[in-house]
Structures are given as C-alpha cells and as structure tokens.
C-alpha cells in the first residue's frame, strides 16, 4: 500500500512511518510543509530502522516530499497534524485528496488551548474526523490510530501490544485501513463502524494520557476482548 503521512516529521507520524516501513507490503512517504524537513525526518527514520536487531531492514526505504506532493502520490493519506491546524493545512490539499482515503488521527486535546491534556474540545461536527469529512466531501475519511502512542511506535525492537480502533462510512475504506493497521507487528485493527463512532474513539486518548500520568507509564494502550474469531 502506498501510504503518505502528512506532518510525518512529528512524534506520531515518524513512529507510524517507521512501523509501516518495516512491512514490505507498504511504500511510505513522509510529508511536511517543507521538503527539506521531510528529507531530514526520512533520514532519521532510516537511521533508526538500521539499528533494529530483530529484523532485516536493508531493503527498507522511506520517501520524503512536501505535504502536497505526498498527498498527490499516495493512495492512503494519514493526517498526523496538530488538530487546531488541520483545516488550514487542508485548504491547499483539497484537490489532491479527491477520491483518496484520508485517515484522521487527530485528537482534539484541550492542551492545544492551554488546558489539560486529559480534557478534549468538542468539534461542532462531533469529532475531528467528521470535521475533516465535512471539509473534504470528495474524499473518504476514516478515523484511526488515536490510541497508539508514539513512544510504543518508536520502540522498534518490540511489537506493539494494542488494538487500533477504526471508523468510517465506507466499508471498503475501513477494510483497507484495518489492513494497514495490521501491517504493524502486534497491532490488531478493528472496524468499529460509522465515522460518527470517532467521537468516542478520539475521547479514549485523554483517558490513556491520564493513566500514563497516574501510573508513570510509558504508553498505555487498549485491547478489546470478546471479539476473538469474529474479525
Ligand atoms: N504523539 C502521540 O503519542 C499521539 C498519539 C495519538 C494521536 N496523536 C495525534 O497525532 C497528531 C500528531 O501528533 P504529534 O505529536 O506528532 O504532533 P506534532 O509533533 O505537534 O505535529 C506533527 C507535525 O505537524 C506539523 N505542524 C506543526 N505545526 C503546524 C501548523 N501550524 N500547520 C501545519 N502543520 C503543522 C509539523 O510538521 P512540519 O513542520 O514538518 O510541516 C509537525 O511535525 C495529533 O493530532 C495528535 O493528537 C498523537
């Protein structure tokens, strides 16, 4: 799968880029507002991947482009942006994203406006993913990857022990994003249904942040039980 991560120079985006790149099924592009910054991030990702003992990483490559070129190039485009800058970023990308699967992983943490990271702001559309879908009516928006933390993603020697909850209105697009999630070692992608379910998925992250703080944990995650043999 040809996957681009816009804002892929940040903690979460870089972690996802490295994890996707570890699976031969994926072709990964890091996007940035500045091409040079994307190139630096891809170089860093490649260096970190080259130190992984548990896997042969010789044939891995990660491309680097501006957000616009990355959006044009990929089939599946992940938005890994501070949520408060999502719409301003999408303004110039609307055409490039037409007909594509766009994955929203932004969490509307209140810390963006100086409040606690254990609180969220409510978007008028109900969730960030629904806000993105309303802004990009000609793209297929899928919500996912909110509940996996960058520290676990960047701990490349170990599998990630968590489920990735996915929601969207197009069943085929959800299936594609579940497949993408499943390319990460240890991750189990779960299609949770319609895009509006993202309202609850996005709100799980502040709970995980609270648990990280309370228990001084590196990165808490989530496992759904009772679905064994049904996915
Ligand atoms: N960090 C986590 O553990 C985690 C976990 C779950 C979900 N998330 C979600 O994932 C998203 C990304 O998280 P992050 O921690 O990687 O964020 P981040 O490091 O703060 O930002 C990601 C990238 O966004 C771009 N960016 C920054 N300011 C911008 C602006 N004004 N306009 C346009 N682009 C801008 C930057 O890329 P360029 O400068 O290269 O353009 C930056 O590297 C967030 O929405 C977060 O809620 C994060």
From TrEMBL:
The keyword Aminoacyl-tRNA synthetase does not apply. It comes from the Archaea. One of its GO terms (biological process) is NADPH regeneration. GO terms for molecular function: coenzyme F420 binding; cupric reductase (NADH) activity; ferric-chelate reductase (NADPH) activity; NADP binding; oxidoreductase activity, acting on NAD(P)H. One of its GO terms (cellular component) is plasma membrane. Keywords: Oxidoreductase. Residues 2-108 form the Pyrroline-5-carboxylate reductase catalytic N-terminal domain. It holds the Pfam family F420_oxidored. InterPro entries: NAD(P)-bd_dom_sf, NpdG, P5C_Rdtase_cat_N, STEAP_metalloreductase. PANTHER family: DUDULIN-RELATED, F420-DEPENDENT NADP REDUCTASE. This is NADPH-dependent F420 reductase. It comes from Methanococcus voltae (strain ATCC BAA-1334 / A3).
């Amino acid at each position: 799968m040809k996957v681009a991560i816009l804002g892929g120079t940040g903690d979460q985006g870089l972690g996802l880029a490295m994890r996707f790149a570890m699976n031969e099924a994926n072709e990964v592009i890091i996007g940035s507002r500045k091409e040079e910054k994307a190139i630096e991030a891809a170089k860093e990702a490649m260096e970190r991947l080259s130190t992984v003992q548990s896997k042969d990483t010789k044939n891995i490559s990660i491309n680097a482009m501006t957000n616009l070129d990355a959006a044009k190039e990929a089939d599946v485009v992940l938005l890994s942006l501070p949520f408060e800058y999502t719409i301003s970023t999408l303004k110039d990308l609307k055409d490039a994203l037409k007909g594509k699967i766009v994955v929203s992983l932004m969490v509307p943490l209140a810390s963006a406006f100086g409040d606690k990271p254990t609180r969220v702001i409510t978007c008028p559309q109900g969730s960030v993913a629904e806000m993105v879908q309303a802004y990009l009516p000609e793209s297929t928006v899928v919500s996912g990857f909110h509940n996996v933390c960058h520290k676990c993603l960047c701990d490349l020697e170990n599998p990630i022990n968590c489920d990735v909850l996915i929601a969207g209105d197009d069943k085929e697009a959800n299936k594609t994003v579940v497949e993408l999630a499943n390319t990460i070692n240890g991750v189990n992608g779960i299609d949770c249904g319609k895009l509006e379910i993202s309202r609850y998925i996005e709100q799980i992250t502040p709970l995980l942040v609270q648990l990280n703080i309370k228990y001084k944990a590196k990165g808490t995650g989530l496992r759904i039980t009772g679905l064994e043999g049904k996915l």
